[in-house]
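Quick one before lunch.
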Amino acid sequence: MNRRSFIQNSALTFGALSIAQQNIFSALFSKPGAAAPWMFHMMTDKIGVFTERGGTIGFLIDKKGLVVVDSQFPDTAQHMISELQKKSDAQVKYLINTHHHGDHSGGNIAFKGLAKHVLAHENSKKNQKRVAINNNNLDKQLLPTKTYSEEWQKHVGDESIALHYWGPAHTDGDSLIHFENTNIVHMGDLMFNRRHPYVDRSAGANIKNWIKVLHKATRRFDSSTTYIFGHSAEGYNIVGSADDLKKFADYLDAVLKFAEAEIKAGKTKEAFLKNTSIPNQGEWKGDGITRPLTAAWDELMEKQNS
Ligand SMILES: [Zn+2]
Ligand SMILES: [Zn+2]
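Model of the zinc ion complex:
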């Protein structure tokens, strides 16, 4: 499919979502851990998304092979695999992890013996291994068999798949996965759509560079690129456009500026963490605001002290 017909097709696909489907979209992402049914949704004739619990899974179905991006948890990965196998008996050529967090790589083990290669950024593999050793569950992991450091690109059937690493952001090992011909990018947890993000400083996260990564994505890709998001707030979609990336970059920038102003004003960290919203960023809601507040404070204090 050429790009023009894809755009028309995807506009129709997203525009034609029924109210019930939209409700499924919003219901699934707002209640992590709830016993919700899964959703297996084709965005185009070959690329789709799966959601049940944890980070959004993306996939490519080509008769020459399958590609799966992220794996949620062992039980939900099994649901995803059975849906995929109803559509195609081709081999899973690549299971790709956007980063190491358990809601994105915990289901890798369900692909044992199924996936030819498991691919992630080199830091993602290190993190996955380190956390598993700490949690004493290395035997429950399927670690990447292939890693890269800056860029990676391969063809699977008609699709060209490119991975980009642009430095520390949500962790120190986040990949952007670009299905180049259909022009869809899986952002993993580089995108929290209208939901306060988890910022993993224990794995080298950096908010300042995260903002740069989001802006770089909007320059590197184009205005017709469709993005898949790791997580979204209730009522917001798990796919979107460059405009959503810019809004999230603005939110992260506002979090840093807020922390900077409060540090300058002589506030204590304890008082700062009591805030329940970010100034002028009312769209970002839900639980977990202390995570970005803590991360922004610590990042700025670290800079001051270095
Ligand atoms: Zn996640
Ligand atoms: Zn994550």
